[in-house]
Here is the input.
Amino acid sequence: MPFEHPCPFDFHYSEFWRERYEQDLSLETYEFLNGEIKKDPDLAAHITITFHRGICLEGKPIIEVFPLIPQSFYTSSIMGDFYDCTENIFEKPVYCILNLIRVYWYLKEGVISSKEEAGNWGLSSLPKEMHHTLQKVMYNYFFKQDNYTFEVNELLFISNYFADNVKELLS
Here is the structure.
């Protein structure tokens, strides 16, 4: 069966959904769990990253379990997150900046990277005007702390840089 994008799923768990799932279970309604067929465009990205960068700890090899996702589906999936990050960079600067770099690097050179790899690549490859901000991002990411705050202007500079450069890469 060919991969469908956005990909349907039966159950998708994260802490974001915990309260809703617990409510459904306590009320024995299960509507949120079973009420409709759900689709998630992010699954194309998750499966692609698993396929290319995952490590199988047990069971069948990854390439026997997960399909190879068409590049257009992967690009569509990461672009959804990219646009979300350009809009929400002020609320989640560390997450968003690292994802903006990941998308840019992928579109520019075809590299599927982790957030840490993207941040390190950004420090060595992006304009020097970004380095101070990227150093703060990497410190906060590595130590899982918010020791550094970000100024509106530095976030706007980064958001605009990636929006302009990704637009150019896509044209």
